[in-house]
Amino acid sequence: MKHNLDTVKQKLYDKDHKLTPQRRVILEVFTKSKEKHLSAEDVWGMVKKTYPEVGLATVYRTLDLFAELDVLHKMDFGDGRGRYEFCESEVHQHHHLICLNCGSVTEFEDDLLECLESEIEKKNHFKILNHELKFYGHCNKCH
Amino acid sequence: MKHNLDTVKQKLYDKDHKLTPQRRVILEVFTKSKEKHLSAEDVWGMVKKTYPEVGLATVYRTLDLFAELDVLHKMDFGDGRGRYEFCESEVHQHHHLICLNCGSVTEFEDDLLECLESEIEKKNHFKILNHELKFYGHCNKCH
DNA sequence: GTATCTGCAAACTCTTTGCAAAAAC
DNA sequence: GTTTTTGCAAAGAGTTTGCAGATAC
């Protein structure tokens, strides 16, 4: 699932939403930023560079909307603010190593959980839609 | 690691904290409540039944303190409020199935991750202190 | 032209903090 | 007696909402 302007436009129109310059710029921020896990305030700061009059409320509303359309994925690293990144797939995200000292977030991929899921689903009568695995500890800079 | 009044008392005294009636009652709430994942407001509601004049700030401060002493473990289920439960072990907590419809939280145990950890530590130069695994989906009531 | 979207300010929720009085030891 | 702890009220952070004007199509 690769998101470009056209696929997002389509998703918006499918649900009677419009493509506004604000939404376009917010989307651009995510394609261009090298930091992946952006908070609303982060996004706002970057959007204002090309669109200074944008409101923070618009950023929040847009991030919400994009999360609803499965364009962005909302995460929580326990620091009291939501973080957003592009949805990797329809189903599962990758996982995160979170440094308790400096707060840095590293990603890693793993398929081990997939095989666990069907077992857990059966045992608990629970339909799994997504999973989230986080390791907390100290990164190589903070040893 | 089983926490009773005496072990907690010891932990408090070890760090020059005092055992107050408020702290005693808050601890009791966790031993007596059948719902395990309590928010500060939850705890406050239950504490007030036996100690009506307690302040919410005291509850927050006590939960913080207990988390620092590894008596309680603070969690986050993505609903914008912190949740607390007894620490299961010095190292790792169990994991959670979170229903996206009704918000119910079920627990499950699994040791599969333990074997993953040393591999991840080596590959990423990351010292893992704790991990957190959550499955989001629909519980048996909400199918 | 009409429904959606925006910016602003105000409201809201959860949590933290400053302070003087109270309590633990 | 000293230090920690408490309750209160006020402040703080992050997020949401109501509304009138603006914009996409």
Structure description:
2 copies of one chain form a homodimer. The first copy, chain A, has helices at 5-14, 21-32, 40-50, 56-68, 112-124, and strands at 38-39, 72-76, 82-86, 95-99, 105-108, 127-138. The mean pLDDT of chain A is 89. In chain A, α2 packs across α3 and α3 (40-50) crosses α4 (56-68). Chain A has 5 helices and 6 strands; from the N terminus they run ααβααββββαβ. Chain A starts with a helix and ends in a 5-residue tail after the last strand. Chain A is of the alpha+beta class and 143 residues long. In chain A, the strands form 2 sheets. A 3-stranded antiparallel sheet of chain A has the order 1-3-2. Chain A is globular, with a radius of gyration of 17 Å. Chain A binds chain B through residues 74, 76, 78, 97, 99-100, 106, 108, 110, 112-113, 116-117, 120, 123-140, 143, and chain B through 76, 78, 97, 99-100, 106, 108, 110, 112-113, 116-117, 120, 123-140, 143. β6 (127-138) of chain A pairs antiparallel with β6 of chain B, so a sheet runs across the interface. Chain A binds a DNA duplex (25 and 25 nucleotides) through residues 16-23, 39-41, 53-58, 60-61, 64, 80-82.
Spell out the blueprint of helices and strands.
The structure is a homodimer of 143-residue chains.
Chain A: H1 5-14, H2 21-32, E1 38-39, H3 40-50, H4 56-68, E2 72-76, E3 82-86, E4 95-99, E5 105-108, H5 112-124, E6 127-138
Parallel strand pairs in A: 4-6
Antiparallel strand pairs in A: 1-3, 2-3, 4-5
Helix pairs in contact in A: 2-3, 3-4
Chain A binds a DNA duplex (25 and 25 nucleotides) through residues 16-23, 39-41, 53-58, 60-61, 64, 80-82.
